[in-house]
Amino acid sequence: MTNFLQYNYISVSPNPFSPDDDSFEDFTIINYNLTQATSDVRIKIFDSKGRLVRTLLNNQPSGSFGSVIFDGLGDDGEALRIGIYIIFLEAINEGAGVVENLKTVVVVARKL
Q1: What is the pLDDT of residue 112?
Q2: How many domains does the chain have?
Q3: pLDDT along the chain (112 residues), means of 10
Q4: Measuring CA to CA, which residue among 108, 79, 110, 96 is closest to residue 38?
Q5: 2 belongs to a structural domain
Q6: 3-state class of 4 per DSSP?
Q7: Structural domain includes residue 56
């Protein structure tokens, strides 16, 4: 019998990425793994001052793993400034009473 630890994580690739429409690393993929088989997932992007700039998922049903594409745009459809952004994922499984919070950073880059 094999025992394995189930763990949660969030990763971003590529990081940094450059959403400048040059067909090279114009978007990044956020991958996540959760400990629960099902959850409602929220993924929000915050700037370095803690301001919400984009909501990628809002109470989206999800299995234990998933991927989301981030195109470097804010909720207003405008390109985000060059800089560091915080990705915050919250997964809620109400039936089990489990809340998972994951954070990581992504860098938006462009040619100067």
Answers
A1: 72
A2: 1
A3: 66 96 94 94 97 97 95 96 97 91 96 76
A4: 96
A5: no
A6: coil
A7: yes
Choose among 33, 49, 50: nearest CA to 100: 33
pLDDT on residue 6: 64
Contact assessment for residue 101 and residue 9, using Cβ atoms and an 8 Å cutoff: no
User: Nearest 5°: CA angle at 51, between 48 and 57?
Assistant: 105
DSSP conformation letters of 36-103:
SSSEEEEEEEE-TTS-EEEEEEEEEEE-SEEEEEE-SB-TTSPBPPSEEEEEEEEEEETTTTEEEEEE
* Among 22, 20, 89, CA closest to 54: 89
Q: Which of 57, 47, 44 is nearest to 108 (CA)?
A: 47
Q: For residue 95, give the amino acid letter.
A: G
Angle at 5 between CA 4 and CA 7, to 5 degrees: 140
User: pTM for this one?
Assistant: 0.90
CATH number of 90's domain: 2.60.40.4070
Sheet architecture: strand order including 52-62: 52-62, 39-46, 83-93, 98-108
